[in-house]
Design brief:
With about 90 residues, the protein is α+β, with helices and mostly antiparallel strands. The chain is about 45% helix and about 20% strand. Helix 1 (about 10-30) runs antiparallel to helix 2.
Length: about 90
């Protein structure tokens, strides 16, 4: 399972789809210049392959988006979690 903070996914592809969905929400808040790299990420198939491989190996994947001094971090963390979203012991 891959934990996304408030959402659980079962595959790297689902996790990346969620990150893309949330990245779209973040980009909608930015002006065109700041939104451009976020929207480019959603179409970057090579980066998605790299991220998928990273998640499959059990490594957290993060997309960090900056707007001045504010950072938005969209992350997927692979692991074993209980139904409350806590890491298993």
């Amino acid at each position: 399972m891959i934990w996304l903070g408030g959402q659980a996914c079962w595959t790297p592809g689902q996790a990346l789809a969620w990150i893309g969905w949330r990245a779209g929400h973040v980009a909608d808040k930015f002006d065109d210049q700041l939104a451009r790299p976020v929207r480019a990420w959603t179409q970057d198939h090579a980066e998605h392959q790299r991220a998928s491989g990273q998640l499959a190996r059990g490594i957290t994947y993060s997309l960090v988006v900056c707007d001045g001094s504010v950072q938005f971090v969209l992350a997927a963390t692979p692991g074993v979690f209980d139904l409350d979203g806590e890491s298993a012991p």
